[in-house]
DNA sequence: CTGGGGAGGGGGCCC
DNA sequence: CGGGCCCCCTCCCCA
């Protein structure tokens, strides 16, 4: 399931919410180490042009055979928080069968949830909403089935979180915090295999793939594995698959 | 050209 | 309902 499944396109009867209530005031994260540093002139997020928005690209690689991570990649003691149980985390995008506690099933799409609140949220966000509501973004053509999803999306246009060092703006506070690490040099995520450290958990995860002989992304023709989907895509574009 | 690191984006889940 | 955190993903750059 695509990650952007909440996005509805080509729907004409879009409901326009009150945007003045949706946009958040700017957020500044100011570590104490910034005190005394000159602050750049920060453009008001509201003047950002919608043209600056880059729409998502649709990945067309189909049927990626994702093999599970080798067991030797399991984190060791001292590893950053929940990276260890990432594979077991229940994501709505996962289609893996569940063997227990799926007592609440959506009557529209048959998706099952272990809790009633989970089912309720699913119906509010997806199934029921798809038949009733559509919230469209005033900055771009995207439409969402819930107001919350639209609010989150609008932040990608208004960029209310501004770095006080360089003035760069972000849609969410944690994105700004990750950016601030590029200024401070903080790298809280360490590789248990080579002691290399990273400022971003995702980058550590990608790095962990480099320690594995059998990597996560595999070419379905030559069985060669790659640490990243982008590398697999490059490999496929280079002609491996068309040669078969 | 390939592989890997850095940086960032977006949607989902949990509390 | 919103914030925080999560994961997955992409793009760019460099060795």
Keywords, please?
single chain; 244 residues; alpha+beta; Double Stranded RNA Binding Domain; three-stranded antiparallel beta sheet; three-stranded mixed beta sheet; 5 helices; 12 strands; DNA-binding; repressor; transcription; nucleus
Quick overview of this protein structure:
This protein has 5 helices and 12 strands.
CATH architectural designation of one domain: 2-Layer Sandwich
User: Topology as H/E string?
Assistant: EEEEHEEHEEHEEHEEH
Helix content: 10-25%
Net shape: extended
Q: Give the class-level CATH name of one domain.
A: Alpha Beta
Q: How many strands?
A: 12
Q: What's the helix count?
A: 5
Please give the largest β-sheet.
3 strands, antiparallel
Q: Mind telling me the CATH superfamily name of one domain?
A: Classic Zinc Finger
What CATH calls the topology of one domain is Double Stranded RNA Binding Domain
Q: Structural class given helices, strands, pairing?
A: alpha+beta
How much of the polypeptide forms β-strand, as a percent range?
A: 5-15%
Tell me the radius of gyration: 22 Å
Main location: nucleus
Subcellular location: Nucleus
Family: Belongs to the snail C2H2-type zinc-finger protein family.
InterPro entries: Snail/Krueppel_Znf (IPR050527), Znf_C2H2_sf (IPR036236), Znf_C2H2_type (IPR013087)
């Amino acid at each position: 399931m695509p990650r952007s499944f909440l996005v509805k396109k080509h729907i004409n009867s879009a409901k326009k919410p009150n945007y003045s209530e949706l946009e958040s005031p700017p957020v500044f994260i100011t570590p104490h180490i910034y005190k005394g540093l000159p602050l750049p002139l920060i453009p008001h997020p509201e003047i950002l042009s919608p043209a600056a928005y880059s729409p998502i690209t649709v990945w067309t690689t189909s049927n990626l055979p994702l093999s599970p991570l080798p067991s030797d990649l399991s984190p060791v003691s001292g590893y950053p928080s929940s990276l260890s149980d990432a594979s077991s985390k229940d994501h709505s995008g996962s289609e893996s069968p569940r063997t227990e506690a799926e007592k609440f099933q959506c009557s529209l799409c048959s998706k099952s949830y272990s809790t009633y609140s989970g089912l309720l949220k699913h119906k509010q966000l997806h199934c029921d909403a798809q038949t009733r509501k559509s919230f469209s973004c005033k900055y771009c053509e995207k439409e969402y089935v819930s107001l919350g999803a639209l609010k989150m999306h609008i932040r990608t246009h208004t960029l209310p979180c501004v770095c006080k060092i360089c003035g760069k703006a972000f849609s969410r506070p944690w994105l700004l915090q990750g950016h601030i690490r590029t200024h401070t040099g903080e790298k809280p995520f360490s590789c248990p295999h080579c002691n290399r450290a990273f400022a971003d958990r995702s980058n550590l995860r990608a790095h962990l793939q480099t320690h594995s002989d059998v990597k996560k992304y595999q070419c379905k023709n030559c069985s060669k594995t790659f640490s990243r989907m982008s590398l697999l895509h490059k490999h496929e574009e280079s002609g491996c698959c068309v040669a078969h």
